[in-house]
Amino acid sequence: MTADGLARLPRTADLARLSLKRLSINQMTVRSWRVPELVEGCVRAGIGAVGLWREPVAETGLGRTARLLATAGLRVSSLCRGGFLTAADATARRAAIEDNRRAVDEAATLGAACLVLVVGGLPDGSRDLRGARRQVADALAELAPYAAAHGVRLGVEPLHPMFCADRAVVSTLGQALDLTEGLAQGLTEPLPAAQVGVVVDTYHVWWDPAVETQIARAAGRIAAYQVCDWSTPLPADALLGRGLMGDGHIDFGHLTAAVAATGYAGDVEVEIFNADIWATDPTIVMARVVDRYREFILTAL
User: Fold this and answer.
1) Domain positions in the chain
2) Please, what is the end-to-end C-alpha distance for the chain in angstroms?
3) What CA–CA distance (Å, rounded) separates 289 from 276?
4) 297 by DSSP, 3-state: which?
5) Which of 12, 14, 46, 86 is the most exposed place for a label (fewest CB within 10 A)?
6) What is the CA radius of gyration of the chain?
7) Mind listing the pLDDT tens digit for each residue in 230-253?
8) pTM, whole model, 2 decimals?
9) What superfamily would CATH give domain 35-283+291-300?
């Protein structure tokens, strides 16, 4: 209260910072920054959360990373990545399960809202797409109880169909929901939503004619919402074809409103793989991300 007994109104700067509390910067968007620099940059900008990757976290140290985040008051919107659950033989599949268990342990230490699963493509030399999808379903059913016991939510991320062969045999949000609901495994009961959810990444789902229906179906199961634009022409490495919101073809207002309508109240994570953005000063990239978030995302939340 002020001296005249009136509650102090937030300053403009305070309001600006409040508007960024649901914004998360994925580590890959500012790839040249190590964890301490990322934490410092988010605090300086008033951003509330970060999306982390296991390799940079390991470089900094899991314990040190957790302490840096706790001191800064930053949430972890996601840890990437688990998954790659498809393999040509039982030994390799078991190794993948064990690596995912380690990823769950790391996510638990970091307090991550979810562990992102990029499920894996066709095993080397295989054309058995249905078999690869069965492997994913079986692995998910095995991992879900372990994740639940450690307080970690798994997030199955469908990837654009162009990545089906080498990265993810789950290509649509509908397929991802079939997995989480146990339909792909023939389970009589769905996997609990608190254990297994889905990742809605605009880059991977914007093209799908059923995306609005599937987002509505995903109510209660959206573990993470990731945003970036689909920019053309695609580079030779299509993985690097992600752009800043507004630089491409995606209607972010429409998709964000659909996600918000499900009751999703989590972070909005900006995840961009782009060689030109990586070559830009990360401080400049952060400022641009904040501007585009306010212009294209915040108004629809």
Assistant:
1) 35-283+291-300
2) 30
3) 14
4) helix
5) 12
6) 19
7) 999 999 999 999 999 999 999 999
8) 0.93
9) Divalent-metal-dependent TIM barrel enzymes (3.20.20.150)
